[in-house]
Amino acid sequence: MKAVFVHEFDLAVGMQVDEVEDPKPAPGELLVKTGASGVNPVDVAIRAARHPYAKMVTPPYIPGAEAAGEVVALGEGVEGFKVGQRVYGRVMGGGYAELVRLPANTAAELPDSYSFEEGAGLTVPFYTAWNALVIKAEAGAGETVLVQGGAGGVGMAAIQLAKRMGCRVFATVSSKEKGDFCKSLGADETINYREENFAERCMELTGGRGVDIVVELNACDNFDKDLDAIRVDGRVIVIGTGTGKGPTAEFRVPSVMTKDAVVLGLAVVNLIPKMPEVVRRFTPILREGSLKVHVDRSMPMSDSNTAHEVVLGGKFLGKVVLTP
Ligand SMILES: NC(=O)c1ccc[n+]([C@@H]2O[C@H](COP(=O)([O-])OP(=O)(O)OC[C@H]3O[C@@H](n4cnc5c(N)ncnc54)[C@H](OP(=O)(O)O)[C@@H]3O)[C@@H](O)[C@H]2O)c1
User: Does the CB atom of residue 42 touch ligand 1 within 6 A?
Assistant: First the structure.
């Protein structure tokens, strides 16, 4: 098969497409003929050796954390899937390839109403947003949620899930186009963080009370001000440093105390043991067909270097995906 390889931990050294032997599914895995692979900030951060997960791989390696496609073989012991089925899911690397080994416990059926490109943008965004809103924040109807970076992959998912949960949703953006996109996903208010102090705006919009929950995707820029934006007992769910940013954030410690702030972190990789339960609850919602997975750009795998530049540049709505 053909696959994209990182040969060096250095963004200046381009990835390249190489021909390698077809993989075989290990016990508990599906072998999937890739329809599309999601491109995520973590792929770029690992390639730049700026992410803790960079210690878990040695070049040359195939990047990619999520994919969608058609099952072509089942590893030993796999139940509940069949050859020919359309699926999507989380892969532990290896996503940018014509064939991927997808652990069955992180895989799910892809309804016919979603293309493979859309399927490739489901797992990391929606399962991360689910983890943040349902599992960590335990968001309830009537609560106010601020989604930081609403027009990106996880933001797109968080806005829609929070609305479904009956929340009032604010989203931060850098442009009118991104604001319109977030509104189209259901955001009640958008805040251009380049023009306004988002914490002050959150206070205005909540009558001085503060938001209940912040879904923080750009913590290195925002964490300190998140503590101004929340109400007393508010929750900040720390998901990301911000694409190409990090790893440190400065914040005023007294703000954590004066707000009785609840700060919760998460990594989607730690969700894996709970994934079958999340799939069980998320699949009926996905089958309804109303969740939008906006794919801004679908590019061939041979353009993976450009895809990484697009993700780093941030000038896209929703997701960037690669096709074989
Ligand atoms: N913990 C986990 O398991 C997990 C899972 C998924 C993602 N993440 C992390 O979460 C972050 C977001 O992921 P993603 O896939 O949504 O990334 P993305 O698609 O690149 O979107 C990030 C968005 O944030 C916006 N942004 C940049 N700086 C901002 C700021 N200071 N305030 C508000 N918005 C800002 C960007 O647009 P503008 O630049 O135009 O504002 C962009 O729309 C990344 O750091 C990623 O690594 C972590």
Answer: yes
Distance CA(37)–CA(27), nearest Å, equals 22
Helix, strand or coil, per DSSP, at residue 322: strand
Residue type, 68: A
The domain at 125-268 falls in which architecture?
Answer: 3-Layer(aba) Sandwich (3.40)
CATH of the structural domain 2-122+293-323, one choice from 3.40.50.620, 3.90.180.10, 3.30.2420.10, 3.40.50.300: 3.90.180.10
Cβ(214) to ligand 1 under 6 A? no
CA pair distance 201, 313, nearest whole angstrom: 26
Order the strands of the 189-192 sheet from edge to edge. Answer: 189-192, 168-173, 144-148, 211-216, 230-238, 262-265
Position 246 pLDDT exceeds 90: no
Structure confidence by residue, pLDDT tens digits, 54-93: 999 999 999 999 999 999 999 999 999 999 999 999 998 9
Helix ranges (H only) for the chain are: 41-47, 116-119, 128-130, 153-164, 176-184, 198-205, 219-229, 253-258, 275-288, 304-313
**Ligand 1 neighbourhood includes 241 CB (under 6 angstroms):** yes
Domain-wise residue ranges, the chain: 2-122+293-323, 125-268
Whether ligand 1 lies within 6 angstroms of the CB of 320 is answered as no
Q: Is the CB of 38 under 6 A from ligand 1?
A: no
131 C-beta closer than 6 A to ligand 1: no
Compute the distance between CA of residue 150 and CA of residue 213 in angstroms, rounded to an integer.
14
Whether this model's pTM surpasses 0.90: yes
Flag the least confident range among 127-131, 153-157, 237-241, 267-271: 267-271
Ligand 1 probe mutation, 217, 293, 297, 316, most atoms within 8 A of CB: 217
- In ligand 1, the atom with minimum distance to the C-alpha of 41 is 47
